[in-house]
Amino acid sequence: VSAVDIDRKWTLAAAADAVRTGETTATALVEEVLDAAARWDPTIGALIEGYDESAREAAAAADTALAEDAPLGPLHGVPVAIKDIIATREGPTTAQSLVSDPEWELGRDAPVVARLRAAGAIIVGKASTMEFAVGLQEESKPFPVPRNPWDPARCTGGSSSGSACGVAAGMFLGALGTDTGGSVRIPSAFCGVSGLKPTFGLVPKSGCLPLGYSLDHIGPIAPTARDCALMLATMAGPDPSDPSSAPEAPDDYPGALDGNLEGLRIGVDTLAGVAPEYLDPAVPPALEAAVATLSALGAEVVPIELPLYDEMTTADIVVLVSEAAAFHMNEMRSRWDEYTAGARAILGSHGLYTGADYVQAQRVREFGRRTLDRLLDERGIDLVVTPTLGLGAVPIEEAADVALGAKWRAIFVMYWNSLGYPVLSVPIGVDAADMPLGMQIAGRPFEDAAVLRVGDAYQSRTDWHLRMPTPPAKGGGR
Amino acid sequence: MKGPSREEGVGSAAAARALAGLPLEPGEVTYLEEIAGPAREAVAALYAIEGIRYEEPAVVFRLERAPS
Questions:
Q1: Interface of A with B in 341-370 (CB under 8 A)
Q2: Residue A49: its H or E element
């Protein structure tokens, strides 16, 4: 595979418009993505299972509905994939694990999947993940080891690995990921696509296997911020089946994308001092150029230093590990050898923390929210941007050093999980190896529309989101 | 199922807690020992926000040799 740029044929929003206007059909779209999957998936391992036949049937039904002038949802005929820790009625949810219960939610849609389906989306498959959204994939297990379509010798990041690399490769036009410690934004940045961690509680997460109860978010991954807005508009809103579901009604996210950043004050933290030894030299100038674009779009840009960065990052780790261990306690003791080594390392580290530590971490999260809110209020700052990561995708053999080793400090995402605030990652450039780099755009709680508005405006002036890797020849493999 | 590979107590109570009850591989024991110190320092910073001085509990578990 050579990473030569070609223009992306479809964004999710453009495809939805094209189906509606008759420029294409749902059947044609589904056949296009299935063809892309046939070319790409043997190389990049984005799917645990493809639902080709049910997708074709759904596409035919969608085209019939269009021909009969039936009411159409905003995602009518659009092919999407679901991270395989979220239940879909087409098949079992594996969590990419030998430990998972194959009967769990079998034959049922998670509420968020049901909402996508009701909006007309076509489910084409279940996307590969790190085991239970934590750890690292292993060749020794009977599941795909995802590879980066920009260079299959490099990792995708995770844990929503297949969701991001499949969108990058055009195997589906949007996907669901989950984000507990950056798992939407990390692979989105590594693979050069857009990914949103919505405000905590905005999207119901029942029907999704938990990692950290108080940190988990389900979010969209797609080529553009506009695509994420379109998906979020169908995904968001209260649901009584999720105790942490927020009562707030969703905004008109697509309607907020007016391309105008006049009147917005954006704080910029380069986070250059967090892990300088691992900071790729391509990151600061890429962020600087992106910030200049935001300024040219009318935003006032000011420097900011995120308060309690280290402490809020630690709080995310303590809470994530403790809550995950609570969920996995029985299987950790009875089926330890069946977990991947990466999952064992992280789950096993729960013993480093006491119950008091967990409580203190939760208290620090609230203190951190108040501290940041006060700073933003005092300085009149509406949103914050930072790099998503301090580096591009690393070779697969070095992935453990990012997930479990010293380089994890160059992953700038966990701060926002502790807060629960909305964050969008968008592609802003490439490193010396032509690996994508990302920028986070973070906002106040339930101001997801503002975050998406900034991302969409940025993408109206740039084309990083339209680059695609060149596909391998049909029938190609590793 | 493999049992703990060490008969000696480990060097920190935090790492020992992580070992308790889990059939860890030797490499996993080493990993947890290596990250225990930095993890405790990071957690101490959470308490320090409120001026609380954190001291690690003095208890150290001793692990039994795994059955062969």
A1: 341, 344-345, 348-354, 357, 360-361, 364, 367
A2: strand A47-50
